Here is the input.
Amino acid sequence: MNARPPPTVVTSTYNWPRALAQAIPTALAQTFSDFEYLIIGDGCTDETEDLVRAFHDPRIIWRNLAENTG
Here is the structure.
């Protein structure tokens, strides 16, 4: 029997941690909790990564692109 992978929630961001600080708790508070949360930085150069990592939630996967792609 093949187990289905969990769904993925994706949020993209570029140097806007104030908005992300509201989006992350909203995603994590859903009643369905078996998901991975992929947050993609579009070449973030501010404190966005620190904000994401501060949540210490194993469902969160942080990736930051090497440069802004628009």
Notes: The CA atoms of residues 43 and 65 lie 5 Å apart.
